[in-house]
Specification:
95% of the residues lie in helices and 0% in strands. The chain is mainly α. It has one domain. The radius of gyration is 33 Å and the shape is rod-shaped. The relative contact order is 0.04. This is Phage shock protein B.
């Protein structure tokens, strides 16, 4: 191996490791951002699930009111 070949190999290896190191750093940053995003979304999902359950209860009550015979009779009387 000549001296020039050795220098070229050393430069290529150095650049290659530099690129790999930068890729690894970007990967770690992405992983951290993803974890932060997931934590934020988890909190929002919990709040939204609570809101959905409250709304489902309200809809169930409204369905009972609307399907009640007394309500239907009252509506028919009002129409007359």
């Amino acid at each position: 191996m000549t001296g020039t070949t050795m220098v070229v190999l050393i430069v290529l290896i150095s650049v290659g490791f530099g690129v790999l190191y930068d890729m690894y750093k970007k990967h770690l940053e992405f992983k951290e951002r993803t974890q932060q995003y997931n934590a934020k979304n988890s909190e929002q999902n919990i709040q939204l699930k609570k809101q959905v359950s409250v709304l489902e209860e309200r809809v169930a009550v409204l369905e009972k009111i609307v399907t009640d015979q007394g309500y239907q009779v009252s509506q028919e009387i009002n129409r007359l």
